[in-house]
Design brief:
Low-confidence stretches: 1-13, 29-37, 402-449, 485-491, 596-604
Number of helices: 12
Shape: elongated
Structural class: alpha+beta
Helix content: 25-40%
Mean pLDDT: 79
Length: 607
């Protein structure tokens, strides 16, 4: 107590001593507190023991302001999936100094089970210490009824469709919990054309005592080759909340196998159209109440195919005749979607100009298609009602004038009591009853010429002019035929127009087989015709259809599939010519190849 009192008295008496004491105390405080604010990086985990597919949080703290681009998370990507990252900063001021604290929270998903080390994370010029976490295997999530919280199923409306027939793929998602950040897969296959049919349809269903929300997503699929096609399993990845925290689940369905049937051998048409039903409607619309020659009529043709796209409907060719002229417009395509699938509609509008009077009859419209429900070839035909066409007014007047002329000429003369010789209209002196006409008067009366009308002169002049023109044309043709001899030999034959490039049938067949084995689809047609002309002659071979007629059924089917792919706008894969080469060799040799592998192959591996 005495010492304390002495020190206080000393400090109060000596002012310079008080100043020194304050300076020493300040520097001592700064020296003692400086280690507390040393720059460092600290890493911590939300929990050091986790279960499989559970989200863990890694927190990084930087006690300095110059953090550069933030933490480098590259070392984490080997053992963890980085789901997200957030950042916040704090600043504090104390005794004239500022302190910056930066925090990063990273959501991680372990890729495996066991003890995993989180390596050092570098921020700026500093890095954290490594830490470890234990990841345990978790049992499958089940509810009280023993059902999983999420299920997914893949179904098809038809597992054995024909080539390019419509197939409806249904992906059903069953959920009994709320999903977060869901990521669903989409059905795909290199030999399938897939497009969305409808928006998602939602319903509720109870399965084994658990009520599920069912979300159905439907797709349209068209197989582009025959044989076995396997649609990959559909999967979903999402986050759910459990009693232990957020957890990621991954669920997938079973794969789906389609056995695609080829084009039937009994289908003989060039355009392949598989459909459940095809309808055709035609309508011929008048532009006025009484159409005449030269007027325009509107011919509308509407074709609908159930279970087919409008582009699959074959095109129709229209030809004008001497009775009418046709001016078709480009077809319009329309697609109608429903729960039962797609309906393709093709509408063609044609302007019809009649060139003759009378009854106008247009040709019937026919389309052949393969009935996928009855598995047979059907043909549908539509007939357009006829319309009467009136002549032009000038044509009616000409006919009326001609009829009047004919009546005047052909009308019988009234009965005469005297001679019917031409009567002169000149005034003559009446003869005396006792006098008789002299001989001179009789001769003069008999020599008078009849009078002609202007119309008769005009008709006569036209006939004379026509005779002169005809004689001139005959004379010129005779001179030309005399000066220029006929050249029958100048008409080129097929051999001269398209000469053969190979020596004989053997060399042509070897070139054809070599092209098939090299999958050369562009040269297939020319090499086929080259070989066929050697084998059957130019009289029998005019096109590839003649080759189909003269070869086997197997060769015909493979050629139809090759043509289908050759004229396809969007080929899905490279043509494989090996099956066609084998079929041609079996046809020419008359013996089936002994390889068992070729016997097990499908008939149409190229589609």
């Amino acid at each position: 107590m005495v010492i304390k009192h002495y020190l206080l008295t000393l400090l109060s008496r000596n002012t310079s001593f008080q100043l020194r004491y304050a300076v020493v105390t300040f520097f001592l405080c700064v020296f003692l507190t400086s280690p507390l604010y040393a720059a460092s990086v600290t890493a911590s985990l939300s929990n050091k023991v986790s279960i499989e597919n559970e989200v863990i949080q890694l927190t990084l703290r930087a006690d300095f302001s110059d953090t550069g681009d933030g933490p480098d998370l590259t070392p984490l990507e080997r053992d963890f999936t980085i789901l997200g990252k957030s950042q916040n900063s704090q600043f504090s001021f104390n005794l004239g100094t500022s302190t910056a604290l930066n925090f990063w929270v990273i959501n991680l998903m372990p890729k495996s089970v066991g003890t995993i080390e989180i390596p050092s994370i570098k921020i700026g010029d500093y890095q954290s210490d490594p830490i470890r976490i234990l990841v345990k295997s978790s049992p499958q999530l089940m509810d009280n009824n023993g059902n999983p919280p999420v299920m997914i199923k893949l179904e098809a409306s038809e597992t054995e469709p024909y080539l390019q027939e419509q197939v409806i793929l249904s992906v059903k998602l069953y959920t009994s919990v709320a999903l977060q950040n869901a990521n669903r897969s989409i059905p795909s296959h290199p030999d399938l054309v897939v497009e969305r049919l409808f928006d998602d349809q939602m319903s509720y269903q109870t399965v084994n005592g658990t009520q599920y929300q069912v979300v159905t997503r439907e797709y349209l699929a068209f197989a582009q080759r025959s044989g076995t096609l396997t649609v990959p399993a559909q999967s979903i990845q999402a986050m759910i909340n459990t009693s232990t925290g957020r957890r990621m689940i991954k669920v997938q369905s079973d794969p789906l196998t389609l056995q695609v049937l080829p084009i039937p051998a009994s289908y003989s048409n060039d355009a392949w159209l598989p459909s459940q039903n095809v309808t055709i409607t035609t309508e011929l619309t008048k532009t006025n109440d009484s159409p005449r020659v030269g007027d325009t009529l509107i011919w509308t043709i509407t074709m609908q195919a159930d279970g087919a796209l409008p582009e699959q409907i074959p095109t129709i060719e229209f030809n004008s005749t001497r009775h009418y002229k046709l001016y078709p417009k480009p077809p319009k395509f329309d697609t109608q979607k429903s729960r039962s699938g797609v309906i393709g509609q093709q509408t063609i509008i044609i302007e019809v100009v009649p060139t003759e009077e009378g009854t106008l009859t247009l040709p019937p419209i026919s389309i052949s298609y393969w009935d996928t429900q009855q598995s047979r070839l059907n043909t549908v035909t539509a007939v357009t009602p006829s319309i009467n066409i009136a002549p032009l007014p000038i044509m009616v007047k000409q006919k009326t004038d001609a009829l009047d002329d004919k009546v005047i000429v052909d009308a019988p003369l009234p009965p005469q009591t005297r001679s019917v010789a031409p009567i002169s209209l000149a005034k003559t002196q009446p003869l005396k009853p006792a006098e008789k006409p002299t001989a001179t008067a009789l001769i003069a009366s008999s020599n008078e010429a009849p009078t002609w009308s202007i119309k008769q002169y005009l008709v006569t002049g036209l006939l004379v002019l026509a005779l002169l023109m005809l004689s001139l044309w005959v004379r010129m043709g005779w001179k030309q035929r005399k000066t220029e001899p006929t050249r029958v030999d100048d008409v080129p034959t097929l051999e001269q127009f398209a000469p053969l490039n190979t020596r004989d049938e053997t060399s042509a067949f070897e070139a054809l087989i070599d092209g098939c084995q090299q999958n050369d689809l562009q040269q297939l047609r020319s090499r086929l015709l080259e070989w066929a002309r050697h084998r059957w002659g130019d009289e029998e071979i005019r096109s590839v259809d003649d080759i189909k007629r003269l070869t086997s059924v197997q060769v015909t089917q493979l050629l139809m599939e090759a043509e289908l792919m050759m004229y396809s706008q969007n080929p899905t894969h490279i043509w494989q010519g090996e099956p066609l080469a084998d079929a041609l060799q079996e046809f020419t040799s008359g013996k089936e190849k002994p390889s068992q592998a070729s016997q097990l192959k499908t008939l149409y591996p190229n589609f």
